[in-house]
Amino acid sequence: MTVDWKKKAALLAEELRRNERFHSLQKVISDPYMMHLARLSLMLADHAYSSRPYNPADALKRASKDSLFANSDRKGKLHQLLNDHLLGVEKVSRHVTYLLPRLHDILPRLARHKGLGKRSLNEGFRWQDKAAEIAAAIRERSVRQGAFIVSMASTGCGKTLANARVMYALADPAKGMRCAFALGLRTLK
């Protein structure tokens, strides 16, 4: 490893040693949830740093015959020096770890959306109005105890929009909703 990598590792080790919470580190390491979050942060950082533009010509100039490379590009050419990669992943993972608990407040929400709050004009889709009304009625209770909702209907009955309307009705109107939909492989026409 290079001098830069060794300096960074020593600096982080000393920072950890001086930290008053160091004595509870063993408790953190044995917590599967914390280890899962740590692994998630490292995986995100590795992916983000590996996909960044990198000048392989510069890396090859700095490389010696004993240099190790972390990865290659899509064409199979050496891409990042291992030391550059390790230091970059450490920096990005620190940033990810810092942002992870704040995602709830950082990510945008969909609030005051006229289309999701509007009643259906089509008679065949009025069931969506009733589903949204029921969801709004259980909003407070679902905050305390959650909600399990099953949406089943034939193709073309309006499930996709209905699901969005139900999620919107369940969300705090002041904050809005945030959700993800995993749609099937078929395209809707």
Q: Describe it for me?
A:
The protein is mainly α. Helix content is about 55%, strand content about 5%. The chain is built from ten helices and two strands, in the order H-H-H-H-E-E-H-H-H-H-H-H. Helix 3 crosses helix 5. The longest helix is centred in the first third of the chain and has 19 residues. The chain is elongated, with a radius of gyration of 25 Å. The relative contact order is 0.09.
Essential attributes:
10 helices; mainly alpha; 189 residues
Order of helices and strands: HHHHEEHHHHHH
Unreliable residue runs: none
Shape: elongated
Question: Which structural category do the helix and sheet elements fall into?
Answer: mainly alpha
| Average residue pLDDT | 84
Radius of gyration: 25 Å
Major sheet: 2 strands, antiparallel
Amino- and carboxy-terminal Cα gap: 57 Å
Count of alpha/pi helices: 10
Quaternary status:
single chain
| Strand order in the largest sheet | 1-2
Write the layout of secondary structure elements.
Layout: H1 3-18, H2 25-29, H3 32-50, H4 56-62, E1 69-72, E2 78-81, H5 82-99, H6 103-106, H7 114-117, H8 127-137, H9 139-145, H10 159-170
Antiparallel strand pairs: 1-2
Helix pairs in contact: 3-5, 8-10
In short:
The chain is mainly α and 189 residues long. It has helices spanning 3-18, 25-29, 32-50, 56-62, 82-99, 103-106, 114-117, 127-137, 139-145, 159-170, and strands at 69-72, 78-81. The chain has ten helices and two strands; from the N terminus they run H-H-H-H-E-E-H-H-H-H-H-H.
